[in-house]
Amino acid sequence: MKYFKFVFIPVLLGINFELCESRGINGGMGCAACTVTTGIVMHLSEVNNDTILATATKICRSLPEFAVERCLKTVTDLEPFITSAEAHKLFTPDIICYALHFCHVDEGEQYCNLFPKPRFIGFHQAVQVLRFEIAKMGGYRNVKSFDACTLPLLSELCTALYDWFENMEPAIDEDGDLFSTFNVARGTFWRGQDCNDTVADIHPGRLPLKSDTEFDSNCNGIYGVRSNDKVPWEKVLCEGIEGRGLITIGDSVGAHFHMPESWFDASLFSLDVVKNVSSQLFNEFDWPEMSFSTGFMNTTDPLIIKGKTDSIYLCLRERNLCNHRDYQNLARNGYSSFDHLNTSHKIARSMVDKPVLLLFELLGNDVCNNMPDTLNNMTTVDEFRFNILSFLKKLDKRLPPRSHVVLFGLVDGSRIYTDMAERYHPIGRLHSDVKYKDVYEWFLCMQIGPCNGWMNPDAEIRAATTKRAKELSEVLKVISNKEKFNNFAVHYVDGLVEEVFKTWELRGRQPWQLYEAVDSFHPNQIAQPLITEALWNRMLKYFPEALGSVNPNNKEIRRIFKNQGGH
C-alpha cells in the first residue's frame, strides 16, 4: 500500500498532461499550473527569507518518493535562470511561464496575466528578454516529454487509474461489487465500506443474507442471534422498519470540491499542509466524506479544511441505525446533464436491495462553461428535458421499488461576482495585488474558468446565465409534477443555497464566508452542513415518506453493537 500511495503524483502527472493541454488556450491548464506554482514559490521564498532555489528544492523534497527526483531535476535545469539577476528584475510568474514556453499565445489571442504586469517594460518585451537570457544559459530542457506511465511497473497501474477515473469505480475492489476497503480513489470516502472484499454478495445496502445469523452480509454492523431465543438480531432490530440507502448523483457541489487556501497563501503554507497531497489528488480534490450529502467524517486540520460535518446520510443513519454505511456518492466535478446520461449503470444496487433516496443535483454545469461565447454554449431547454428524462428512464430500471428521487433546481450564481470580486484571492494576499476579479479576468482570457457566465464583469451576461438556469429548473419542476415511474417517486427542491445565504446573513455574517476561498465558486465546509439542514427540513416537511421509518430500536443497537464497525 505504501508503494501505491507514493506513485500517485508521477502517475497522475503522466496520464493527465493531455487533459491539461486540452482545456483553454495559450497553454491551458498547464500554463495555469506553471503560473500559480511559480507565484507560490516566489511568495514562500519571500515570507521565509529564503532563496527561490532553496524554497523550490524544499518543496521537491516534501513530495512523495517517486516525484522527488523528477522535481529536483526540473529545479536543477532551471537553476541558472532562477538565480539570474536579470530574471529577478522582470520575474513575474506570468512572464516566467511564457518565457519557458509553458504558456504561449495562440493565433488570434493575446497574452493573459494573473499577476500585475511589470511597470517599466512591456509584457511582450519582458518575455523576449527572459527568453534571450535563457538561451544564453544554454536553454531549458523541457520536462513535458516525461511520461510516468512508461516507467517500469507503472504501465498497468496507469491503466487501472484511467479506468478508475473514467468509470467512477473504486481503484481497489477485489470482488468487483463496487465497494472497497480503501478510502480514496472512489473507495470508502465515496461508497460505504465493504466488510468483505473477497465476496461480491457481501456489501452495504443489500438485504441481509439468511438474516445475517453468522456474518454481516450488508455491512451495517448488525449480525448474530439473540442468546436467549436464537432469533437473528437483524430480525429483532431491523426487520419491518423501512430502511433507506443514500445515493448522490451530481456535480462538484455533491462531490464537495475543495482546495486548501493554505496551498496558495504563503503566510499559511508549510510542508505539513502538502504532506497528504497524493490522497487529495486521488480524491479528485473532492471531500465526499465531509459533504452535505454523504459526509461522515469530522475535519481534523483547520489549515486543510475547516468546519463541521453533517449530511443527509448521517441524518438517515440517525433516523435508523440499520442504514449504517449505506451510501454512494457518484458526483463528479464538471458534470452536466449530458455527462450523467450513462451514470445509472454505475450505481451498485439491485432491484431486490433496500430502497434508496437518490439526490440528483446538477446545480450549474448546464449553464456554466469556459467558452468565450458562453451563452450559446449552454444546455438548451429541449436538450435538458431530453437528458433528464432519458436518465430517469434508465434509473427506473436500476433502483429498487419504493425508492425516491429528489431533483435539485439550479442555483442562482449571479451573486458570486458581487460578493467576491473586490476581495483578495489567497494568492494575492501577501502583496494585496490579486483580487478575485483579476482571477476571473484571467479565467476569461485563458478560457479555463468553471463558469464564464457568472464569474464575469458583465452584469448582462450574469443575468442571462441566471435566466437560463431558471428555465432549466422549471423543466425539473414540471417533470417532478407530471412524470411517473415504476420504482420511484420524484420530488423537486430549489433555492437551497439561496436559503443558506439568506439565513447566514440574517445571523449577521458575511456572504464571502460561505465560499471556497480558492475558487470562490463552491460552497465551503461551513456552508455544507447548512445545506444539509435546509434540505433535511424541506424533505421532512414536504415528503417525509422519502426518508424511511424511524427505528425505535436505535438505543438497543447502540448498546449491543456500539459504533457498528465505524466507517
From TrEMBL:
The protein's matches in SUPFAM superfamilies, at most eight in alphabetical order, are given as: Saposin (SSF47862), SGNH hydrolase (SSF52266)
Q: Which GO terms describe its biological process?
A: lipopolysaccharide catabolic process
Report the PROSITE patterns cross-referenced here: SAP_B
Q: Which UniProt keywords apply?
A: Disulfide bond, Signal
Q: Which range is the signal sequence, renumbered to this chain?
A: 1-22
User: Is RNA-binding among the key words of this record?
Assistant: no
> Which segments constitute the Saposin B-type domain?
27-107
Tell me which Pfam families the record gives.
Lipase_GDSL, Saposin
- Plastid as UniProt keyword: no
Q: Name one GO molecular function term.
A: acyloxyacyl hydrolase activity
Q: What is this protein called?
A: Saposin B-type domain-containing protein
